[in-house]
Design brief:
By secondary structure, this protein is an all-alpha fold. The protein is rod-shaped and about 150 Å long. The protein contains 4 helices and no strands. It has one domain. The longest helix is centred in the last third of the chain and has 104 residues. Keywords: Coiled coil, Membrane, Protein transport, Transmembrane, Transmembrane helix, Transport. Its main location: membrane. InterPro entries: SNARE, T_SNARE_dom, v-SNARE_N_sf, Vesicle_trsprt_v-SNARE_N.
């Protein structure tokens, strides 16, 4: 039974590595070469795979709870390293999303101003300014979203640490309770032994009194026979 959490952990870890490798292939090759909607589709699939990898991390943390205390730190270190790798991939995916959005805006702008010259369109400079302002606003929103996501991940890590501390305290309380139960059983056993010793002592006392009484009677009988 002790090997079951370890085996399940390794299964989830294998699934995690498979998902991460698939995302790396997309980010390092396909997503860079693709354009437009094809790139967006690849990034969406990467997001889904990263969500699945995040779920594998959660499953691994659950399996760690059932492991022996002596091997827990080694597996907790593995999970910590996997989280670091996963967060790095999420950050790269967000950056590629932002790049794709900027490319789309720039493409739209190029198409818009390539169709007519500034002299033919008196509002082109104003439109260009609004477009640039929109791009800057989008970048700022993306940056704020990334910061919020980082804060959420940090909060999740803090919550996980608190949960681990609570589990450790629960184990200590359960260990103390077991120790107290063993002490109670030992005390009951010692009490029973003491009672038997007291009972045996009383029996020995009564036996000694009986022997003394018999001796006294015998002495009296001997003296009576001699005198008579």
């Amino acid at each position: 039974m002790d090997n079951e959490p370890t085996a399940l952990f390794e299964t989830y870890e294998s699934d995690f590595i498979t998902l991460v490798d698939a995302v790396k292939v997309k980010l390092d090759g396909e997503a860079k070469d693709a354009q437009g909607e094809a790139r967006k589709a690849l990034l969406r699939r990467s997001d889904m795979e990263l969500d699945e990898a995040d779920e594998m991390i959660s499953q691994m943390e659950i399996e760690i709870q059932g492991m022996l205390q002596s091997i827990k730190p080694r597996y907790q270190t593995k999970v910590k390293n996997h989280k670091t790798e996963l967060n790095a991939l999420k950050k790269r995916t967000r950056e590629l999303h932002a790049t794709a959005n900027r490319s789309e805006l720039l493409s739209t702008s190029s198409n818009l101003y390539g169709a007519s010259s500034p002299s033919d369109d008196p509002y082109s400079n104003s439109d260009r300014s609004r477009l640039l302002a929109g791009t800057a606003s989008l970048e700022d929103s993306t940056r704020r979203l990334a910061d919020s996501h980082t804060l959420a991940l940090q909060t999740e890590d803090v919550g996980a640490d608190i949960l681990r501390n609570l589990r450790g305290q629960r184990e200590q309380i359960e260990h103390s309770r077991d120790t107290l139960s063993r002490a109670d059983r030992s005390l009951d056993k010692a009490s029973g032994t003491l009672k038997r010793m007291i009972k045996r002592m009383h029996m020995q006392r009564y036996t000694t009194i009986a022997i003394v009484a018999v001796l006294i009677i015998l002495i009296l009988l001997i003296l009576w026979f001699k005198l008579t």
